[in-house]
Design brief:
It is a single chain. By secondary structure, this protein is mainly alpha-helical. It has one domain: Arc Repressor Mutant, subunit A, CATH 1.10.10. Helices cover about 65% and strands about 0% of the residues. The chain contains seven helices and no strands. It is elongated.
């Protein structure tokens, strides 16, 4: 993997850890490149869309917060960058095969790797 993508992944991890915005615009702005350049480079190297990768990382953070158990689903959705709780619930169910509440009760953090995809971070 090239240096730019390593920097991208480090930036995403830090932003998630520090509860900063994790969008294509925010990440590319911080790295000092255009959205088109980094998105194109990411896609050429990984075969994936950068926006999908970032959404996946935000959903993984949401799963960890759900298991911590002290925030409401609506709070977790906002904290992970989802403006709409309904959209968050829909995307979470699509990714993990269960609702956020079901995941909190019955899911495991091993479910973070439920889908066989190349994990980059």
């Amino acid at each position: 993997m090239d240096g730019l993508l390593r920097s991208l992944i480090k930036t995403v991890r830090r932003r998630l850890r520090e509860d900063e915005e994790v969008t294509v615009e925010a990440v590319t702005r911080e790295l000092g490149y255009t959205r088109q350049y980094i998105s194109g480079r990411f896609h050429r190297v990984t075969g994936r869309l950068l926006s999908h990768f970032l959404k996946e990382k935000r959903l993984e953070k949401a799963a960890r917060l759900l298991k911590a158990g002290n925030l409401r689903v609506s709070q977790i959705a906002r904290r992970c960058g989802f403006d709409s709780e309904n959209y968050f619930r829909q995307q979470f169910r699509h990714r993990y095969g269960m609702s956020p509440r079901q995941f909190r009760s019955n899911g495991t953090l091993r479910a973070l790797t439920r889908r066989p995809q190349a994990q980059m971070a």
